[in-house]
């Protein structure tokens, strides 16, 4: 039975799982659970995951949510090349560290973009309080600065923590960065403009994973138009 | 060289790491980093961990931060009994899921308790009013509710996800609940009073790890008194 992936390409973690599968020829069936239509709250999806979370995989009856856990599970159970989630205990610990740090740091990028742009553009919801948006922005900016200053070591290697080959942490992080394409250009420039190491790392990733990246981001052109229209229309 | 653990007993993730070490006779040297005096933000500690966060380990020169990455690393490198972090791919994935969920959900207990009690007591941050605490309180309550409703299956086993023996996920999650002891009695009752499965699970852990819990909580009476005194003096 083919792996089932319940998700929506609007979701950064879902895209990361798609990229891993495509890059490693892991057959999967993407079952769209539309976040915009709030399908994750419907009984049909709640029967699979009562917690309404995406992405979720169903691997022949084994249900697993939480993207980092999914990425690890797929890497190990499908025996993908070692660099994705190394067997060496110290190398693996470094990837675990990155994935843990991600949860409380760079993952907060989603909160900022969601509240500032997507609530009104996609769900026609009122804009949240400024204080809430500012708080999410603060965490996002601090996280991106930390990645630039401490987590990229191009003198050692092109990927996170100076690794010579990419890992599941690289793709999970990168999908948060690609979400910034939904922000106004001036803001994207402000966030990434003075971060040369980050820009180089993202470029290298996109080149290494070209067709898979494109596939995972195929809904972006339409999304960007939707968000820009809403932004200009208000 | 003995494992060094940089941490503070007031930090729950630190106590979870110490608990794993104590329960498995892993020799360690606790290098105190006094959070109350802001030692974690000083240049000396930031040279070890630029985020200024504890716990951090130094395993013969290998530096690792993020408590859940540390717990995984110690479990595998010290060959502890399998139940702490099982080798079986699916069993391990379930624990990875719990550890990820902890970061973005249960850790909200710390966010709330620090905002409400520890910040004002230890760092002289002005006491927030009820309205300011509402968001954090809501997230905390939601997480505690999820654990009670979905993550405990006493009909299968006494530990998280119905496991017959504790895992590192049980350690990190249960240590988080210790933070609720800083709250006024009525608030603790409200949070845990109608959550019988949670109370039973916490008791089961205390029974299994009795004297080790006493060890990691040895500074608790003094800290609880400081918080209660600060609260009554307004």
TrEMBL record, chain A:
Pfam families: GST_N_3. Residues 88-225 form the GST C-terminal domain. Gene3D superfamilies: 1.20.1050.10, Glutaredoxin. Residues 1-82 form the GST N-terminal domain. This is Glutathione S-transferase. It comes from Riccia sorocarpa.
From TrEMBL, chain B:
It comes from Riccia sorocarpa. It holds the Pfam family GST_N. Gene3D superfamilies: 1.20.1050.10, Glutaredoxin. Residues 1-82 form the GST N-terminal domain. This is Glutathione S-transferase. Residues 88-227 form the GST C-terminal domain.
